[in-house]
Structure formats: structure tokens, C-alpha cells
Amino acid sequence: MADDSKRERIIKRVEELVQSVEMIKTVKRIMPSLEDLENYANTQLPLAAIVGQLPVPQAKVKGRGPGATRDYFRSMLRVNVYVYFMDNEAPDATLSFLLDELWRILYADQQLQSEQATGLAYGIELRPEMEPEVYYPYYAFLLSVDVTYFHQIEGI
Predict the structure, then answer these.
(1) Angle of helix 91-107 relative to helix 6-19, nearest 10 degrees?
(2) What is the pLDDT of residues 2-34, one digit of tens each?
(3) Euclidean distance between CA atoms 24 and 39, whole angstroms
(4) Distance separating alpha carbons of residues 101 and 45, to the nearest angstrom
(5) E-strand spans in the chain?
(6) Phi, psi (rounded to 5 degrees) for 36
(7) pTM for the structure as a whole
(8) What's the count of helices (H) and strands (E) in the chain, helices before strands?
(9) CA 150 from chain center: how many Å?
(10) Could you state, in order of their start, the residue ranges of all structural domains in the chain?
(11) Is-contact 143 95, C-beta < 8 A?
(12) Residue 94: is it exposed, middle or buried by C-beta count within 10 angstroms (0-12/13-18/19+)?
């Protein structure tokens, strides 16, 4: 695994931020199946699955300044945060609370700064949507985190 790749560092920072939401009890880097969800105890839910997509280069920028030879790229990396929870009384209220907390935490750190890395990203855009399949008694929603960042030719 390329732990030092910018893509991986961005995904890990999103994972750290999601883990900081107190109500979310479990964070994984893989989407659970229905069988997987059934194996989680109620105390392990809500569960967030962090799934990084491949970055999409948006622009190539020539290096600036005298003698600049390095090219830079502006890319967009989508990091999907799938949230699964159970609530038989007020699932819409639970969804609102979880989404509100994620929204607040992620938009508060749009450059994805941490002790290990400062300014991994140029900015983020959040795109929430309901998951088309709801596995009763589980409810799910997707929060796509579109991260815009710059990188050099050596790695994406």
C-alpha cells in the first residue's frame, strides 16, 4: 500500500475526521454487505464505510518562476462516506443529525490538515444522497467528499 501517496493521505484524513464524529461507532475502509451489517452489534452502529475513488486530473499547470521545469496537476478525488444505521422510531431525524455532524466536521477542515500533513487539499465539496437500497432495519446514506488538490508528476 502506498501510505505516502497523496491520494492515500487524503483518504486517511477524511477517515480521521469521520472517526471524530462521536455518534459514529465504527469506521471501515470497505463497504459492508447485508450479511456484514447483520454481524455488527447495535453498539457498533452507526457504521461509516470510507471508499476512495480514483482521482481525476482536471488541469495541468506549468511550474512558475524562472527556470521552473516541474508540472503540477489539479485533480479531484472523490471519497465516498457510506453511513449505515438502525433507528425504528425516527430514522429521518437520525439521518439529519449524522449528516449535520459530518457536514460540520468536514467543512471545518477543507484543506484536510493534520499533524502529519498540512494542507493536503485545496478545498472540498460535499454531495449527500440517499442510498437507493435500504436494508430494513438498516438505513443508509452516501456523503461524497469531492477533494480538489494539487500534486506533481511523481505521484497522484
Answers:
(1) 130
(2) 667 899 999 999 999 999 999 999 999 999 988
(3) 17
(4) 15
(5) 26-28, 47-52, 56-62, 71-86, 123-130, 138-152
(6) -60, -45
(7) 0.88
(8) 3, 6
(9) 17
(10) 6-152
(11) no
(12) middle
Within the chain, which residues score under 70 in pLDDT? 1-3, 63-69, 114-118, 131-134
* Element of type H or E holding 9: helix 6-19
Which set of grid coordinates corresponds to residue 12?
Answer: 486517511
State the CATH architecture for 6-152. 2-Layer Sandwich (3.30)
- How far CA 20 is from CA of 13, 31, 41, 68, 85, in Å, comes to 11, 19, 20, 40, 17
Identify any residues that bridge with 122 across adjacent strands, giving them in sequence order.
none
Residue 23, C-alpha cell as written in the block: 455518534
| Residues with Cβ within 8 Å of residue 75, at least 6 apart in sequence | 55, 56, 57, 58, 148, 149, 150, 151, 156
CA-to-CA distance for 137 and 123, rounded, in angstroms?
Answer: 36
